[in-house]
Amino acid sequence: MIDSNLLKNMVSIYGPSSREERIRNLIIKEIEEYVDEIKIDQLGNLIAHKAGCGDKLMISANMDQLGFIVIDIDEKGFIRFTNIGKCEPIHLIGQRVQFENGIKGVIFYEENSTENKITFEKLYIDIGSNKKEDTLSKVNIGDICILANEYIENEITIISPNLDDRLGCYILVEVIKNLNNTEYDLYFVFTTQGKVGARGAKTAAFSIEPDISLVIDVNRARDTPKQERSNVKLFNGVTIDIMNNSYITHSEIKNTLLDLVVKNNIKYQLEVSDDDITDAGSIHLSKYGVKTTVVSIPCRYVHTSSEIATKEDIIMCLKLINSFIGKL
Amino acid sequence: MLLEKLTLANGVSGNEKEVRNLIYKEIIDFADYIKIDKIGNIIAYKKGKKKTDKKILFIAHMDEVGLIVTDIDENGFLKFSTVGGVDKRVLVSKTVKIGENKIPGVIGSKPIHLQKKSERNEAFELEDLYIDIGVDSRTDAEIKVNIGDYVAFDTKYEEFGNGCIKAKALDDRVGCSILIDLIKDENIEYDFYVAFSVMEEIGLVGAGPVAFNVKPDICVIVEGTLCYEMPNLDSHLMPTRLGYGPAISLIDRHTLYDFELREKTVSLAKQHNIPYQYRKTSSGGNDAGEIQVSGEGAKVLALSVPTRNIHSSSSIIKKDDYFNTLSLIKYLIPSICKEDK
Amino acid sequence: METKDALVLLANSNGVSGQENNLHKVIIELFESLVDEVEVDSLGNLIFYKKSTNKSDFKLMLAAHMDEIGLIVNKIEENGFLRFSEVGGIDKKTLVGQEVLVHGKETILGIIGTKPPHMMSNEEQEKSIKIEDMIIDTGFNKEEVEKIVKIGDFITIRREAIVLENERISGKSMDDRVGVVVLYDIAKRLQTLKHNIDVYFVCTVQEELTMSGGMTSTYKINPDIGIAIDVGFGYTPELKRNQTLLMGHGPGIALGGNIDSSLRNKIINIAKELNIPYQINVVPGQTGTDARSIQITREGIPTLLISIPLRYMHTSVELVDLKDVSFTSILISEFIRTIGNKPEVINDIVEE
């Protein structure tokens, strides 16, 4: 049911915010034969159009990933960096990273630090070099690396970095490949710079002027030990996000989705979260306003090198998007 | 229910007149003897078909927690103190009724936009709060209200949820209402006394004179009591639970309750399939504290209706608990009196 | 309808940011006989269009937001209690012991509960209670409540507006239903007033959350001038005089970078000429109102912010003075009456 090869390729390929060329090219190759037109805008958003005569429906997912940009290299060749996209410094200790040119390294921290709180200033990347010159021959200030971790798949779950939001991109690709009749004028948008404040989504929505927008994202499952703040759980189906810090769902779209899940037997859950900006925050207030809802896949350990999502939830999400497109 | 009228009446401790008049009128036709004592308690006596040499007294308090106007400032804002154990944190953003003419007022607060970050996590101090009745000067305010006016919450009585009741002053109008139901019942076999006390919330003031007057052998306090069931709380930390029947007191700040009386009550509840629970906290207290040690002393029992948000503007009880408390009391009377023969 | 009755009606209506659909009917019923066109746009803004007496291509937009702060269900506990998040800048200190309405399949009563003071240490009693330590009690168990309520359902504070002394009215959501009532009052006045410009009355959505309503409706209307009508802090003893407006002393006219200064001078002159009380309200930075959204839409729009004094903002006993409502609507109506055609205003701006 899930195209493991494609998903694996999509989550593994390099493409931190502002450097989305590789992931964009991969997606273009996958979808070009299924759409009428492909456009890349100023910010690098990939916009795929499938013409129809109904309302303009924009379905988007952000294609960039969490990254770390080099700000300094010391005499011994250790790399200091800062984050591109939100993550917890403590989650990075001992994690491996990879630069665009394939150079790998490991993140560690100043162990004798007396302060309890780990901040990015306390972290460094070690690429196994012995001096500054050696490091500089492989990595420059301004280079961006990504979390490098194995893609693991078992019968029911997927464990990998970058499920946020390559999973959303994967769903879009699958939807595009299986497009049936629809009366919507469809725009599939793979946005850039989602991790740094939904910047790509803003310009994409401005140029497309959609009537309706669905944003496909992952959201934090809080079903792990001693987590009780909200309801979202793995294996409980696709999540319809009612509200987060940057948007509140449009009631008309929400109601349509709720009708569809019941009618098509789609496992779903509802969430009110205090998470940060998603693309929806930018899109819904573009120009005349856009009726917007976020649909997401529950995911544990978001913004770490081992995000976990379930196949069943992915399929439920796919089913919901397909039924939304086909509902007319 | 009569409880609606009882909770809508205002009777902040020390000012129980409205409640007292209401209760007096309700029970005068059913009591064989009734009097209002010198500090305002109602004491009534009802004859049963059979005589008993045990004096049983049922008592509930008429007063409720509230506020009292202590000053009027030059801009016409009313400063106040609390009367009884009101949590200062429930006062903000509420409407109130002031004095006998029930003048409406509001308790506002500094807007969140203008609060410093540290202020946001602190409760408002009582001395920073005031009541706004819409006037701009002390002179205008004094036309409507006076220093010393009592202030009650402005809360409707409503039934909601699955058999629940929301109102102010359920502590202890629920007790008053149960005792009124009891005295209206013509089928109670033995003689008994009921009393409606004043000023319980400000230090069990009324109960002593009642006990002095009646000199009961046995006294049953009928109360609304603490009920708190936050999720994930260990069960021993929940004082009582809504819908689990009358709460039987073990111990509180003033009283260790009589063991035999308590056991008798429990076995009656079991025998008649009435749900019951123990009150699992030693905090709080009631008129039992005064009555137990008055004169030669009395054996005391407290039966309470679990009351959520007690001492706040909108408290909650469950009707089932009310009726189960009433029927347990009705079984209790013959059971106590019979065995003494 | 009398202005006072309209204010009570609207304050008692329920519409948290995102839930403004609830308000459409009641507001449209107020306005529809007074305007030429009624439109509900895609985010749910209400746009009422009143044509100028003569033909005009000059557009004035008057905006007041109709949403209110509130709560939203985020979890249903095993024992049936509801957990919730804030929608908009609600002060958690105002929630304890508050009665609420939960808008599920039907609207049901709930009471916000927390630990009783008897069970708290003295230290604990000095702190404000965290949202995580509060629940909503609906009197139902889980199974029963789930038939009516789901995650994402809106919750409003339940408060019926009351009339105090001096025609002062206190209730929830006066911020900014009182602004909507000012629009209504102006619309009534325009029935008998000749005006040379087109007027758009806009009741915006989501001001308390993302301000998206102000942005998108302005983009659509593309007005020549925008006036946001919102509320300002009314003076009470614990507040500084220079942060606040006096009750009953007329609207606050904002002064600051967010405000077009030639328009401001114009409206102040009108107030002076006609002896309409007003107060100056200095706002050096962003105003945190729709005025901001209007000002920076498209190529930028000259904007005014008029504030009605309101005490106890973001509590359920927000208090306004009906005199201020009248002063505000008289002032803006006169502004509309005296403003000529496009060239006049443009000249003014150039002169500045």
How would you sum up this structure in a few lines?
Chain A is α+β, with helices and mostly antiparallel strands and 328 residues long.
Describe this structure in words.
The complex is a heterotrimer of chains A (328), B (341) and C (352). By secondary structure, chain A is an alpha+beta fold. Chain A has 2 domains: 4-65 and 161-326, Zn peptidases (Aminopeptidase); 67-147, Elongation Factor Tu (Ef-tu), domain 3 (Beta Barrel), CATH 2.40.30. Chain A has helices at 4-12, 21-31, 132-136, 163-177, 199-208, 251-263, 279-283, 311-326; strands at 37-40, 46-50, 56-62, 67-73, 79-84, 96-99, 104-109, 123-126, 144-147, 152-153, 157-160, 185-191, 212-220, 238-244, 247-248, 268-272, 291-299, 307-310. In chain A, strand 6 (96-99) and strand 7 (104-109) form a beta hairpin. The mean pLDDT of chain A is 92. Chain B has 2 domains: 2-64 and 168-338, 3-Layer(aba) Sandwich (Aminopeptidase); 67-153, Beta Barrel (Elongation Factor Tu (Ef-tu), domain 3), CATH 2.40.30. Chain B is built from 9 helices and 17 strands. Chain B has helices at residues 2-8, 17-27, 117-120, 138-144, 170-184, 207-214, 259-271, 288-291, 319-338, and strands at 33-36, 42-46, 56-61, 66-72, 78-83, 94-98, 103-107, 131-132, 150-153, 158-160, 164-167, 192-197, 218-227, 247-249, 277-279, 299-308, 315-318. The two termini of chain B are 37 Å apart. By secondary structure, chain C is of the alpha+beta class. In chain C, the strands form 3 sheets. Chain C has an 8-stranded mixed sheet with strand order 1-2-12-3-13-16-14-15, sandwiched between helices. In chain C, strands 5-4-9-6-7-8 form a 6-stranded antiparallel sheet, with no helix packed on it. A 3-stranded antiparallel sheet of chain C has the order 10-11-17. Chain C is globular. The model of chain C has no long low-confidence stretch (mean pLDDT 92). Chains B and C meet through strand 7 of B and strand 7 and strand 10 of C.
